[in-house]
Protein: Maltose operon periplasmic protein
Organism: Xenorhabdus doucetiae
Amino acid sequence: MKKKLLSLCLSALLCNVIPAVSYAAGSGIEPIDIETSNAVAPALSLSTLQKLQWQPINTHGTQSMVLNSSSQQINDGHVQGAIAAFALPANQGSLEITLTSLIKDKQVYSPNVLVFDEQLHPAAFYPSHYFRYQQPGIMSTDRLEGVLKLTPALGQQRIYLLIYTTRPDLQTSTQMVDPAKAYAKGIGNSVPNIPDPVARHTEIGSLTLKVQSESNTGNILIGQVFSSPDTKPVTVGSTQAVSTSPIRTTPANVAQSAASPVKPVLNDTEQYFNDAITRAISHGDIDKALKLLDEAERLGSPTARKTFIKMIKNKK
């Protein structure tokens, strides 16, 4: 039993370092280049936006929402199906917003996001391919996820977030990774020749929106210091090449070519975490070891993951 538990923990951990992409759905359907199809933000009329019920959400808040046939709908141009509309505070500094769309029963809502200033002028556009597939972890399930970093211009009280899906999105699907493949690759075994599961994109789904305060480095400015009605929204992620690296990278906005690298931890701190991970696994406390690993990597440790995997393999 203990060996099975350790294997599952290692498998879930290693799942996070395998890349994934979206593919055209179904046999007999012409493949769709989703980056081309969703390259331009939709031109929604002001009257359409003013009719929406914008749900307020505060900083340090998390909002879960189920989109179904009873949800607000927009069927205009490429936009189709249930939508989510949020009003965010614009007078509390910069915001970091994590949008998650959960994969359930091999179905998922593929989100696009339009951000509007206080006057409902479009300011930022995050196409669906910005929200990348994330494999399940110890405390999370298969999902599409992306992080938005926004800085409201001064003088505004609210900015607005519209989440929607499109007709091209509904003709594509998300390919997941079979956990057995991730585990075999992570420990150096031959990868089994088994098909990966595929999640079909649908008009409904389950979303989670987490909002917190954030430093404004590299953020998208929402709203204009000097009004300019002809300004087009900044498209985020449209020119980013799909990464083939085993380490997932979050696409930066178009104003910043690369994120600042995480500084490595001091040698003493790194040794402290490695020793603590070793002791925790030796005592059978895998949960504590995982928490130590997360904290060490957040601080920039390059060896904590190797220590964890080595100890897990030795424990078996």
